[in-house]
Amino acid sequence: MSQHKTPLFDTVFNHAKNRVVSFHTPGHKNGRGVDKRLRSFTGRNMYFMDVTVFPEVDSLHDPQGPIKKAQQLMARAYGVEHSFFLVNGSSVGNMIMLMSACQPGDSVIISRNAHKSAMSGIILSGVWPIWVQPKVDQNLDILFDSSPTQIEEALRKYPEAKAVFVTSPTYTGVTTDLVKIAEICHSRGKVLLVDEAHGPHLKFHKDLPVSAVEAGADMCVQSTHKILSALSQGSVVHFQSDLVDLTRLRRMVSLLQTTSPNYIILASMDLARRQAVLHGESMLGRVIRCGEKGRKRINALKNFFCFTRKDIADRGYDLDVTKLTINVTKTGLSGYEVEDILTKEYKIQVDAADLFNLIAIMGIGSDKSDVDKLVSALEEIDEKYRGAAQNWVLQIPELTTEMVMVPRDVSLLYTSKRVPLRKAVGHISAQTLTPYPPGIPVLIPGERITQEIVEYLEDLTEKDIRVVGQEGEALRTIKVVTVR
Ligand SMILES: Cc1ncc(COP(=O)(O)O)c(C=O)c1O
What residue numbers bound the domain in which 20 lies? Predict the structure, then answer.
């Protein structure tokens, strides 16, 4: 079938145009029951597309018609054996990958800065995580995911690992050398899983880094909604593996997804794929050029800088230049403060901020005027605002951690209680504690709490550093495992 076709969108769209009387879910009945404030803003047409599973529109759980065809077109577009549509983002994709590649008790090599959904996947699949510490770059104030050397070393130390899980690109658009990592994994019979949530577009432009499917990953997940034009939650898991059982993957895709998928999201995946194949090169080319011009102008400012592809290449990685990571440390303001100014004074919303950086994500719909607005706002902020100089340094503490219980058992088999920080030494953590910066967990469910870790956490509390996972205003207690 031609990539010009959009079988799923066409089916849902034609159904909507038919104005069929609804005696199926959802309850708004083609929009009639939707609150007026929403309906008067959106118009009514869209609600005729909000349908449920019936023969005409096919089932996500046993696709035989337009969903099957749309998934086949997606697979062909990326050059993989199979692609599965997901309606709960790459979050559910990460869970699906771990649950299909691994059995309970297997171990997986994974970087400690993986997205929180990878931790959910670790809990649900019952695997032992073997953590690789990300590398910190104190000049760029960012973290790097695992390099081939780190993966090789981890596999030498833990040859029993079943799989390697890598995040590429990271949130800042940095990609690792997946070609080398795939070689390392496959020469040892290990499965390579890639969280490519931020990279659904890489395959469609020659000036973007190599994508996971081109590098030979066994499976990868992509948030089609993050950079391409699918609606939020629309993601995909791609499969091309001799090491993973396809039937098991199918089962996990079904096990973890709703029986009432949103057909507008599904239809938008079909359109996003067609658009990427037919127009990706030109549309992404425009985005890349706008981004690079914006980067140049930002780098001409006194107090902001935006690292380049060359900066990243010098460090052995590659960069998706459609991501603008804007370092703010020279302004004396934190990234959070600049984000706030951009939102309130300029009506510009970036995707994320931390102490050091703003992360401005461009997508297939970005245009020059958006970039111009962002750069002009930064130019004004550069002149207008000056904060007290920051003395933050991005660093990862050198703490020894030891997993003594598999996270699934901590979460599903045992109960937990809160104990004061001081009294937690020797216990097993029942929670994740992640200070920002650097955004890497100090403790993970199943890890032994040592004196050294408690002292580090006390020090953070004294410095008023917020730890995600703390129970209130300050970190005074930790959840630990208790025997039922
Ligand atoms: C690296 C990474 N992986 C996975 C996810 C989850 O993706 P989604 O929002 O599509 O569920 C995110 C979300 O921001 C992410 O940054």
Answer: 7-276
